[in-house]
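Worked Example 4.2. Consider the chain below.
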Amino acid sequence: MQILAIVLLSLVSAGAAYQWIGTRRGARGCAPPGRLVDVGGRRLHVVTAGATGPSVLLESGITASSLTWAHVQPRVAAFARACSYDRAGLGWSDPDPRPRTLAHIVDDLDAVAAHARLPPPFMLVGHSFGCFVVCAFAARHPERVSGLVLLDPPAASEWREPSRRQARLLARGIRLSRFGGLMARIGVVRACLALLTGGAPHVPGTLIRGLGPVATGKLRHLVEEVRKLPPDVHGMVQEHWCQPKCFRAMADHFRVLQEAAAFVGSLSALPDVPLVVISSGELPPERLEEHRQLARLSSTGRYAVAERSGHWIPFDEPELVVDAVREVAGSQ
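Applying the procedure from the previous section yields the following structure tokens:
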């Protein structure tokens, strides 16, 4: 037993050293494409592009970074001043020492707009969980919003009062995030990703099967989706997910999901500005109907389906997103 404990301690120590060395190397080869701005003792990573035109704020999905918009932001920058950022703990941004709440997330988005020197009103573009964030911002600051584009929003009806199954999924997601953070701290995540991208996919596959079929399937699907991004950002995404802070941020945002869904689900109207809601092409009829109802929260709301897209519309049909932003900008 004593020998086993010594072996385990040696493996953990070696893994921690491997993680420390990898993090230092990754920091040298993974410089932030934007700038780090101070928002009260911590830093958020902000990326701006475009010199003139309407102000466009891009809000990513629940565990995604500014790299989500790698296909979209450069195209929007041709006719607008576009800004994306990493929420606290994700990408290059520092964690928030406070418990995450929807109000704190909206405050951060407000601070990003100020640091990016974007003149209001803002056009807000949200993907997935980001739709909840931009709707909350619009409800709090209606006079500062010129339009909304919502890409495949989550089902507020499912998450504001989750069923027993949904509650189990959410609790499981938080537990797996904590476990992932621990595995990242001792180098296991880094080793698995290195093996996966280095041509030995069966090794990490064997390791992650212990998480269960649902988690394994979602992880594989996420890897496939990330590969749709430009090749020059693949290494950046990989390095981010080697960092324990990203897993902690994932858990923090999962905890906010129910609060955010309850807030958006209670809205009877959004600011009466141009609004486009785009659903993925793989949703069941009841989800499509909920998106239609969301589009009706503005008198000028429009609803569309991205027929060739899964949930990650900015990856699958970025031109559709850019056209929607251009449409809303032209309506002002």
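Confidence is low (pLDDT under 50) at residues 200-204, 210-216. The chain has two domains: 35-161+258-330, 164-252. Compare this with Example 4.1 before moving on.
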